[in-house]
Design brief:
With 239 residues, this protein is mostly helical. It is built from 9 helices and no strands.
């Protein structure tokens, strides 16, 4: 029921997500501008990623329309806020110190604000869908997916220009503006922890095995030397 919406989301792009350059031909002023923007960008990109994920979770046909509606509404609201914040970040940083920087900045801010409004409109439309009849709800969701696809694939010329040239190079060097990949930190550290724990975990086992063998040997020696019968005599005397 939500699969078309999920497909439209997969085509969406905040273009700062695609930055991955490694060149170093931007100057300090441009780098400072990029850092100012990208430091504010990262949490908004995370918010967008989380919103996308919440919609994708509801892609199965077994989800109730009301649950899908609620998830999509919240997600579109979060996206709207995130794009608005991205626009504010670019606006508050001022024009990048490059040729035609002011015009590029203003155009990018305009596009980001337009995306914010578009997602707010999608939230309103999702909230208005009839969830009582699944077929009608599905039709309404498909229409919203068509609009989402337009938002995702169109109107990004200014953002493309913003990430080109020296500004794009400078932004690509900032962690906050780089494309987010699957988190490897927790799994990597977990693997390291397992690796560290392994020697410690095997050492006691080896010691326990050695102690057990020693105990078994002592028991065997005692049995053969007759010490245990002596202990029995002693207990009989006490009795």
């Amino acid at each position: 029921m939500n699969k078309k919406l999920a497909a439209a989301l997969s085509g969406g792009a905040v273009l700062v997500l695609t930055l991955s350059g490694c060149s170093d031909d931007s100057d300090d002023k441009v780098n400072d501008w990029a850092k100012k923007v990208c430091d504010q960008v990262q949490p908004q990109l995370q918010k967008i990623n989380n919103a996308n994920a919440s919609i994708l979770e509801k892609t199965g046909d077994d989800n109730k329309p009301a649950d899908v509606q609620k998830a999509d509404s919240v997600a579109f609201g979060q996206m709207s806020q995130a794009y608005k914040a991205l626009g504010t970040a670019v606006d508050s940083a001022g024009p990048p110190p490059v040729d035609d920087g002011e015009a590029t900045q203003k155009a990018a801010v305009k596009e980001l604000n337009a995306s914010s409004k578009a997602y707010a409109d999608l939230k309103t439309k999702v909230d208005a869908l009839d969830t009582k009849e699944q077929s009608k709800f599905a039709d309404g969701l498909n229409a919203i997916a068509d609009e989402l696809n337009k938002i995702s694939t169109g109107g990004d010329q200014a953002l493309r220009k913003l990430q080109s040239g020296k500004v794009g190079v400078a932004m690509s060097k900032q962690e906050g503006c780089q494309k987010q990949t699957a988190s490897t930190g927790p799994s990597g550290s977990g693997a390291d922890a397992d690796a560290d724990a392994s020697p410690e975990g095997t050492a006691p086992d080896k010691k326990e095995s050695t102690d057990k063998e020693s105990t078994d040997k002592d028991s065997s020696d005692k049995g053969s030397s007759g010490e245990e019968p002596a202990e029995k005599d002693s207990s009989e005397k006490k009795a």
